[in-house]
Specification:
By secondary structure, this protein is of the alpha+beta class. 45% of the residues lie in helices and 16% in strands.
């Protein structure tokens, strides 16, 4: 898909390739539908260059300490990988100005984070001058 230029953005993250297919995003936007993409900082920066009028929401943990606790509880990273994830998270937080909104994702309160994101979508739809988003 990369070679055929079929991805809106792509990246190798922690040894795994991730990407957003271009065509489904374009089709949804052409139909006037909202599109929600879950991407990392690198992906958000790439998409912001392509669609600067898009709305960018940064999902953040309440604290770096809580993030470390969550990652440790998963038992999915080696100590080296956990340290790398935490270092990367610290660098990613510095990119907050790239985003329009920040939503805190508190442990056990996913419904609140979802509600906050729904409120952002609602507010954006009520803008006096709406954002025109098209690929």
């Amino acid at each position: 898909m990369i070679a055929r230029n079929e991805l809106l953005e792509w990246a190798n993250v922690y040894g795994n390739w991730y990407g957003v297919p271009y065509q489904p995003v374009k089709q949804a936007l052409d139909r006037g539908q909202d599109v929600i993409l879950k991407v990392d900082i690198q992906g958000a920066a790439t998409i912001k260059k392509i669609l600067p009028q898009a709305v960018f929401v940064f999902l953040v943990p309440p604290s770096m300490e809580e993030l470390a606790t969550r990652l440790k509880q998963r038992h999915t990273e080696s100590p080296f990988d956990l340290a790398l994830r935490m270092k990367t998270a610290g660098e990613e937080i510095k990119q907050l100005p790239l985003f329009d909104y920040a939503v805190v994702n508190k442990q056990g309160e996913i419904d609140l984070a979802v509600s906050d994101i729904e409120a952002i979508i609602t507010a954006e739809k009520r803008r006096i001058t709406p954002r025109e988003i098209a690929l």
